[in-house]
Amino acid sequence: MCYTAVVFKDEEQVEIFLRGNFVVMDDCPATGLDIEIEKIDGTACKNTRYTVKPIQDTGCDPGSRDEFNITHLNPLDGTAKEVTVYLDDSPPSITCGFNHAPHVKRNNSVSTDGKTLYHRLGDSVGSHLKLHNAEFFFTINVSTHGSARLH
Asked: What is the residue-level pLDDT of the chain in tens, covering all 151 positions?
């Protein structure tokens, strides 16, 4: 099963989705029905894979024997299914600044915490400010299985 129509932000969202869309049923009236959800290591982004397995807690002690000397199994495992989802748990990162060497005197600066950019308009022609290249840049890095970059 493959479900990549929605991008999940974290594993908790994936688990809520899978629990809401997989129903565990038994042919006999039963209690202790649940599903076990496990992420398959080494999978990411559009190809994040999970194993969903129905289980039943029978209430018996594992390995105990009944009056017919039959060993009890607990939990009882159903047939597992593999599900592929789109999990992107790495938010994009943004960097920005000005394209000039630090020793070159410009009307541009960055605050000491690196969070605020300043561009001072100093040149003017008559009563109008003179336009010039502020040399501003920004880069957005989006983490995917490879990596995408917008500059």
From this structure: 777 778 888 889 999 999 998 888 888 777 888 999 999 987 778 888 999 999 888 777 776 777 777 777 778 888 999 999 988 887 788 887 777 655 555 666 777 787 777 766 666 666 666 666 677 788 888 765 444 444 4
Domain boundaries along the sequence of the chain: 2-87, 93-150
Secondary structure, 3-state, the chain: CEEEEEEECCHHHHHHHHHHHCCCCCCCCCCCEEEEEEECCCCCEEEEEEEEEEEECCCCCCCCECCCCCECCCCEECCCEEEEEEECCCCCEEEEEECCCCCCCCCEEECCCCCCEEECCCCEECCEECCCCCCEEEEEEEECCCEEEEC
